[in-house]
Every structure is written in C-alpha cells, then in structure tokens.
Amino acid sequence: MREAQQAREHGDRVTAERACARGILYVQAQVIKVLYGYAELLDRQNYGSGIAVRGKVQKLEQARDEQAAARKSGNTYLGFDPAAELKAYADLLSGAKRNTDALLVEALAAAYRYAQDANLRRTQLQRAGKDPIGEC
C-alpha cells in the first residue's frame, strides 16, 4: 500500500493502481491464512469455536474467489467483520503472552480495514463518474 501511495504522490497512477491491487490481494490472502490459524488454535485449546471461525473464513474465501472470477471488487455482505475476528485472535495471543504475534495480527486487522476503506473510496469515485485508478 505504501508503494501505491508513493507512486500516486509522484503522479504515476498506473503504478499506483498495480501496487494497490497487489496490496489488497496480499492482505486478503493473509487474513484468510491467519484466520484459519486462529480456528486451528481454538480447536487445539478446546475453546469449541474453531468450527464457527472456520465457517466464517470459508465465507470470506468464497467471496474473494467470486470477486476474482468476476474480475472486479465488490461489496459482499459476509455477516461478520474479519477485522473484529482478527482483533479477537490478537487478544487471545496477547493473553497467552504472545505479544509479538498479537501485534502482527493487529497490524493485519488495520491493513484489512485500510483495504476495505480503499475499495469503498474507489466505488464512491466510480459512482461519482471520477477515475478511481491509483486511489488506494
């Protein structure tokens, strides 16, 4: 995302667009990977909610795949907030004194929120008849 911001600051909207797309895809992939890890940890700790988290992650993964197949970003209602799930995972890690891991998961939650906000800004620009290329 920083690469996109720097390119946009230098007036290179095409490079900014490519960097933004890569960043969003990377964040999506990492959120899915980390939330599957959260479900596994819940299962190992016998908290009983690993199945529920796994179901949510599968829904997120399906939405990502459907958007990729349609070759566009979209607003898919998931019925849950992936950033909130990441925050719950970070809290669990923090409680287990895994502070570095907790900070990494919190940073991923912030990146996810940023990517979602960028998608919203882009949609709003499109609806207003403006060019969203490089806006990230």
Describe the structure.
With 136 residues, the chain is an all-alpha fold. The protein has one domain (2-127). It is built from five helices and no strands. α2 (13-44) runs antiparallel to α3, α2 (13-44) crosses α5 (99-127) and α4 runs antiparallel to α5. The longest helix is centred in the first third of the chain and has 32 residues, at 13-44. The radius of gyration is 16 Å and the shape is globular. The protein starts with a helix and ends in a 9-residue tail after the last helix. The relative contact order is 0.17.
Q: Over the alpha carbons, how many angstroms does the gyration radius reach?
A: 16 Å
Average pLDDT, all residues: 88
The structural class is mainly alpha
Instruction: Please give the share of residues in helix.
Output: over 70%
Question: Approximately how much beta-strand content do the residues carry?
Answer: under 5%
* Spans of at least 5 consecutive residues with low confidence: none
Total helical segments: 5
Query: Shape from CA axes?
Result: globular
Looking at how many chains there are and whether they match, the oligomeric state comes to: single chain
Q: How is the main sheet built?
A: none
Give the domain tally: 1
**How many DSSP-defined strands?**
0
What's the end-to-end separation, in Å?
7 Å
* Topology order in helix (H) and strand (E) letters: HHHHH
What is the structure about, briefly put?
By secondary structure, the chain is mainly α. The chain is built from five helices and no strands.
